[in-house]
């Protein structure tokens, strides 16, 4: 018979309780990173499309950016139409906004 002090019952539960917060933090950071990457790709696609449409003379090209909560600016110079935009990242963690910029040849001028 073993003495009561050398009993290992409950050790796994205690180790799990200590490790669980670290696992939750790592998972939250992973989800936040994935959300940021997704938002960046979506914003880059929208900015590229807006620059192409603006270069063709479409006045409603920035509607897609403003619908997603992003803010965009347009610049015409040296035969190019450049669109720069920022958009918030929708995630549980407070993450900084993502930015994107794209240019297209100005065919309308």
Descriptive key words:
single chain, 109 residues, alpha+beta, three-stranded antiparallel beta sheet, 2 helices, 46% helix
What is the CA-CA span between the terminal residues?
A: 93 Å
Average residue pLDDT:
85
- Quaternary arrangement of the chains shown? single chain
* Helicity, as a percent range: 40-55%
* Outline: rod-shaped
**Gyration radius, in Å:** 25 Å
Number of discrete helical segments: 2
Low-confidence stretches: none
Give the H and E element order.
HHEEE
User: Could you tell me the strand content as a percent range?
Assistant: 15-25%
Please tally the β strands and state the result: 3
The strand order across the widest sheet is 1-2-3
Number of domains: 1
* Sheet having the most strands: 3 strands, antiparallel
What structural class do helix, strand and pairing data support?
alpha+beta
Describe this structure in words.
The chain has 109 residues and is of the alpha+beta class. It has one domain (9-105). 46% of the residues lie in helices and 21% in strands. It has a three-stranded antiparallel β-sheet with strand order 1-2-3, with helices on one face. It starts with 10 loop residues before the first helix and ends with a strand. The model has no long low-confidence stretch (mean pLDDT 85).
